[in-house]
Design a protein that fits this description.
binds zinc ion
Amino acid sequence: MMLRVKKRTPTGKVFIHLKKRKPRIARCAICKKPLHAVPRKTPSETRKLPKTKRRPERAYGGYLCSNCLKELLREGIRKRFG
Ligand SMILES: [Zn+2]
């Protein structure tokens, strides 16, 4: 969807400009905090980036934040070894 923005030119006339809406910031699936290193771009713009610039290169990168992933991994280890 395009956003309608009223712009006044130096001559005083008001024109309507169409502006692209930015997508929402990527957030962690558990704690809902904003994720770092995930660009705020539309899917078509994201596809043009190299894969390494789309999300952090770790397990669950771009889906979970580092703290939540750490907790999950600790829980998994506790379940296995008590
Ligand atoms: Zn989190």
